[in-house]
Write a structure and sequence with these properties.
Number of strands: 11
Radius of gyration: 18 Å
Low-confidence stretches: 1-17, 193-219
Helix content: 10-25%
Bound molecules: zinc ion
Mean pLDDT: 82
Largest sheet: 9 strands, mixed
Structural class: alpha+beta
Amino acid sequence: MGRINVNEIDDYQISNSGEFFQLKDDGDSKIVHILAETPDDIDAFVIHKVTIDGKQRNVCCLRKAGDPIDYCPLCAAGVKQDVRLFLQLYDTEDGKVKVWDRGKSIIKDVETFFRRNNPLYKAPAEIIRKGAKGDQKTSYTIYPVADKNYQEATKDILGYKVEVCAPDKAIILDKTYEELESYLKSGNFGAVSGSVQPTQPQVSRVATPQAPASQKQQFTRRTW
Ligand SMILES: [Zn+2]
């Protein structure tokens, strides 16, 4: 199944585009490393789903907990909020970093795995899908791998994480109040956001960020 030893990977390609992690059908599994030290490191965002040019995209909600509803044009317009977790996974099959978009409930599985695997990234984890294609009740389980003779991974081997949230070309678009207003009026974000400096990202983080998730810049990789 093409599993490669992490020691053999030294010149793999990092995906710039934030490739998604997927298991397509019942029983499918993959061996990964979770790119996080603890469950608290996993990126959690409050987002809205919007449709731009016929494609569904995620945008950051501008409100923090306790903010009035009109701090975010989408909330004020009644667009549903959603809390998503974006796990970054190092896929041992192709050596790429992939992002797994999950609901809140996945954190329990990560915590279970963490109990015996601290830091999270060190040991390989097998993610198995239970549920056929299209099954709404599909669930996933994260297991330690059966073979205990694995090589422990280091951050150097695993490489970069993907920048999940950025003004452009990211899995979650970090848009300004004006851009969200423009979206509600015209169905697009108006002026090209690249011309707007991404100064203060209004990211609504659910997890308590120890260090401010600073330096959201326009590149799509970050060290961790
Ligand atoms: Zn909102």
